[in-house]
From TrEMBL, chain A:
<keyword id="KW-1133">Transmembrane helix</keyword>
<feature type="transmembrane region" description="Helical">
    <location>
        <begin position="233"/>
        <end position="255"/>
    </location>
</feature>
<feature type="transmembrane region" description="Helical">
    <location>
        <begin position="32"/>
        <end position="56"/>
    </location>
</feature>
<feature type="transmembrane region" description="Helical">
    <location>
        <begin position="312"/>
        <end position="331"/>
    </location>
</feature>
<feature type="transmembrane region" description="Helical">
    <location>
        <begin position="288"/>
        <end position="306"/>
    </location>
</feature>
<protein>
    <submittedName>
        <fullName>Ribose transport system permease protein</fullName>
    </submittedName>
</protein>
<keyword id="KW-1003">Cell membrane</keyword>
<keyword id="KW-0812">Transmembrane</keyword>
<dbReference type="GO" id="GO:0022857">
    <property type="term" value="F:transmembrane transporter activity"/>
</dbReference>
From TrEMBL, chain B:
<dbReference type="Pfam" id="PF00005">
    <property type="entry name" value="ABC_tran"/>
</dbReference>
<keyword id="KW-0067">ATP-binding</keyword>
<dbReference type="InterPro" id="IPR003439">
    <property type="entry name" value="ABC_transporter-like_ATP-bd"/>
</dbReference>
<dbReference type="InterPro" id="IPR017871">
    <property type="entry name" value="ABC_transporter-like_CS"/>
</dbReference>
<dbReference type="InterPro" id="IPR003593">
    <property type="entry name" value="AAA+_ATPase"/>
</dbReference>
<keyword id="KW-0813">Transport</keyword>
<keyword id="KW-0762">Sugar transport</keyword>
<protein>
    <submittedName>
        <fullName>ABC-type sugar transport system ATPase subunit</fullName>
    </submittedName>
</protein>
<dbReference type="GO" id="GO:0005524">
    <property type="term" value="F:ATP binding"/>
</dbReference>
């Protein structure tokens, strides 16, 4: 995690140069809390849960928590790319479901596990591309297009699978789900790798700058010759790609491809992006923020479970925290 | 004196002949012939809706003209998109400045022509080179900005205008097009921007200036073109005209 921490010091320095009186004042300003809501929230939750339930801060629990967060991290990062262009991808969870079904069916049909995984990722990326194409070339609002894709893709996955789960008993996926380096399970490491690559793409390539410009002021970007349509299509394709990676992690985790859509994943991916300080108006945000947001939401669920709080309370808690974060976000400058 | 010349002179950097533009049922431009000489400041004036912006947008590739020929630097109809116009050497300072608030001064100066290092698909931004280059660009035009790593959001109107002009010149533009560069500025900032435009002329950069301010046009421009109702109605040397004559031409009191 070298790169994100370096970028945060650059951030702090540029803030200090921005005629801020001092670093102490910067820490006290509401804008700081808005930018780092996910980090602050995460630290707060860890402290509270550690005090209330000693089991929380043990290596096995941390390992399980991070592995459980992996899928949400990958999806939040995909969602981040789209939100940074001032869009939203509501079809993300449906793409995960379809990706899983494609993986299961192709594997059952005798394809090798790698071919199946690649096919799943191609299908979800292709549908992401289609989302982007309909939104930009078709000039239909992102909300409507991805809502349509959400329904259509869910239906497609049900038709393909006949509503039946497909077992995927493969040693590679088994090892992916259960292996670890230290307390970091492979799924979490995959998520971290996705985050690192995304950070580099977003902050160290021309495409990244163009994406931020497109999300920030699309008209300005267009006037400077940036092909904003292509940039937005690319963002939805990346979102679909992340959906495919998440599908692989999901099938590895549960050992089968289930034709059920987990809407919690969709809502939590948007929640993690908001908690991570990414502006819903586009053009502003980070990769580290949504990653921490995803870990924070998973920590919340994990901690409440350890405290034997009924699962029924978990969506309530998530909703409360997201709205709270949005309120803090109003102070973001 | 105010007759519209039909043929572009040999030293014209940009010219057009019989340009027309139709938006659905609305005729925004009809039979416009226009030129801008190398190294000069050429002003286009006219009332709101006279077609100034449409003309400029056609010239820099934002709109595709319905009819007519555009000539830039010896080439006929050289570009179909703003990107191609930029590559050919025309930089536009738009009325909205085309700045991205959340990006830094340096990022804005290098937007869509970022410096990258690496090979093949692995090409990464060379931020240090861009920050240094941005500093050099700003110093060359004596533009005063707190820091190149500062976000543009925090800058004043005049500073933003200066950044936008600096970007246009820094790209090595042969021709800089400015749409109402001082419309939203105070007295002091307007003076700064006018000084900047004179400095461009000293650097032998050709400028097309769209303006509402007749005094400013006479202070800065060499040649003035007057538009009314989608047509060019006059072309005069700025030194040979008066503010009253320009007003008369714009309003149609003088034909």
């Amino acid at each position: 995690m070298n790169t994100p921490s370096r970028s945060s010091t650059v951030e702090a320095r540029s803030k200090a140069e921005g005629r801020r009186p001092s670093r102490a004042a910067a820490v006290l300003s509401p804008s700081f809390w808005a930018d780092w809501a996910s980090a602050v929230g995460l630290v707060g939750l860890v402290i509270v849960f550690s005090i209330l339930q000693p089991v929380f801060l043990t290596a096995p629990n941390i390992q399980a928590l991070l592995v459980a967060a992996a899928i949400l991290i990958v999806l939040s990062i995909g969602q981040t790319f789209v939100v940074m262009t001032a869009g939203i991808d509501l079809s993300l969870a449906a793409l995960v479901m379809l990706g899983a079904i494609v993986l299961g069916l192709t594997h059952e049909a005798g394809y090798g596990i790698f071919a199946s995984c690649v096919l799943a990722v191609i299908v979800t990326s292709g549908l992401g591309f289609l989302n982007g194409l309909l939104i930009t070339a078709g000039k239909i609002p992102d909300f409507v297009v991805t809502l349509g894709t959400l329904s259509a893709v869910t239906g497609l996955a049900l038709i393909l699978s006949g509503g039946e789960p497909t077992m995927v008993g493969d040693t590679f996926l088994l090892r992916l789900a259960s292996g670890s380096i230290g307390i970091f399970g492979y799924p979490f490491l995959v998520a971290v790798a996705v985050a690192l690559v995304s950070h580099i793409v977003l902050y160290h390539t021309r495409f990244g700058v163009h994406l931020l410009a497109t999300g920030g002021q699309q008209e300005s970007a267009r006037q400077l010759g940036i092909r904003t349509g292509r940039v937005r299509i690319a963002a939805y394709t990346i979102s679909g790609l992340c959906g495919g990676i998440a599908a692989i992690l999901l099938v590895a985790r549960i050992g089968s491809a289930e034709p059920t859509i987990n809407t919690n994943l969709l809502l939590n991916s948007v929640a993690a992006v908001v908690l991570g300080g990414v502006s819903l108006f586009g053009g502003r945000g980070s990769i580290l923020g949504p990653l921490l947001g995803a870990v924070m939401l998973t920590t919340l669920v994990n901690g409440l479970t350890l405290l034997s709080v009924s699962a029924f309370y978990q969506p309530l808690a998530v909703g409360f925290i997201v709205v709270l974060a949005a309120l803090i976000m109003r102070y973001q400058k | 004196m105010s007759a519209v010349p039909n043929e572009a002179p040999a030293d014209a950097i940009l010219s057009c002949q019989g340009l027309g533009k139709q938006f659905g049922a609305v005729r925004a431009l009809s039979d416009v012939s226009f030129f801008a000489r190398k190294g000069e400041v050429t002003a286009v004036i006219g009332d709101n809706g006279a077609g100034k912006s449409t003309l400029i947008r056609c010239l820099v590739g934002v709109h595709r003209p319905s009819e007519g020929v555009i000539r830039f630097d010896g080439q006929d109809n050289p570009f179909a998109t703003p990107d191609e116009a930029r590559k050919a050497g025309i930089e536009t300072v738009h009325q909205n400045l085309a700045l991205v608030d959340e990006l830094t001064v340096a990022q804005n100066l290098y937007l869509n022509r970022e410096i990258v290092r690496g090979i093949g698909p692995f090409r990464f931004l060379d931020r240090r080179a861009m920050n240094r280059g941005a500093q050099v660009m700003l110093e060359r035009l004596s533009i005063n900005v707190p820091a190149v790593k500062q976000r543009v959001r925090r800058l004043s109107g005049g500073q933003r205008q200066a950044i936008s002009i600096c970007r246009a010149v820094g790209a090595g533009a042969k021709l800089v097009v400015m749409d109402e560069p001082t419309a939203a500025l105070g007295v002091q900032e307007t003076a700064n921007v006018e000084t900047l435009i004179r400095r461009l002329k000293d650097e032998h950069v050709s400028v097309i200036l769209i303006s509402h301010n007749f005094d400013q046009v006479r202070r800065l421009a060499d040649q003035v073109w007057v538009m009314r109702a989608g047509r060019v109605v006059a072309s005069v040397r700025a030194a040979e005209t008066s503010g009253n004559e320009l007003v008369a031409l714009v309003t149609g009191a003088k034909q």
